[in-house]
Design goal:
With about 250 residues, this protein is mainly alpha-helical. The chain has helices at about 5-10, 20-40, 45-50, 55-60, 65-70, 80-100, 110-120, 125-130, 135-150, 155-185, 190-200, 205-215, 215-245. The protein is built from 13 helices and no strands. It starts with a helix and ends with a helix.
Length: about 250
Amino acid sequence: GGSLNFAAVASATNMQDSSLLTAAIAADNVITNLHFLLIIFIPGIAWMASKYPTHHMDNAVQVDLDAKSPHHIADLDIAGLLGSLALAFLLAAIGSVLADLAGKPQFSILAITALTLMVATLLPHKVEKLSGHAEAGNVLMFIFLASVGASADIWELIDIAPVFFVFATVIIIVHLVILFAVGKVMKLDLAELAMASAVCIGGPASAAALASAKGWRDLLIPGVLAGSFGYAIGSFIGVAVVEWLK
């Protein structure tokens, strides 16, 4: 998952402490960026390259991300943007009503996510006619993050942030150890493992950035698809873990 899943799980689990949420988001962003730098560096280590197959690295080519971009800012139109917003508001309203009817209003974000996935899956040609949804979503996400940060207690944030940084670091270390250990046993390509790690931690955007930086054209689309799938299921898994640990 990513920041959107972070916000969704926080909403579904009633994580109301702004300072706590801000500290967690800050730790997540910093550690994610450091992890991405590490993942770019790892394939270049000769010792690592000697332990894993390197087919993708040996056949690296320049990746043109612009050619694979689904749309550009210049392609946006008012009708498409309004249609995207109208559909988003409609799905949000229906999802909230369904969650209320189920007696679980705190899980409205999950109902909205499920409805959105259904619409995108069942009506792909209709959704393709919309525009501006990614840009509008990013803007709204930034507004959400800004509002959370603005309401945080800076002194409390400084006090609790180190704990989240340590926790996030432990998660990354465990992730890398398990990933590369399993990859070694299954004899997976080093580039595939690096891409898998980037997607798990950073999402589809990291997949595109890593493929571009390393020239792994064959891994671009699989990485983006895997990251998108993670976005789709991340909120459900996050909430499920919380419910399981209660």
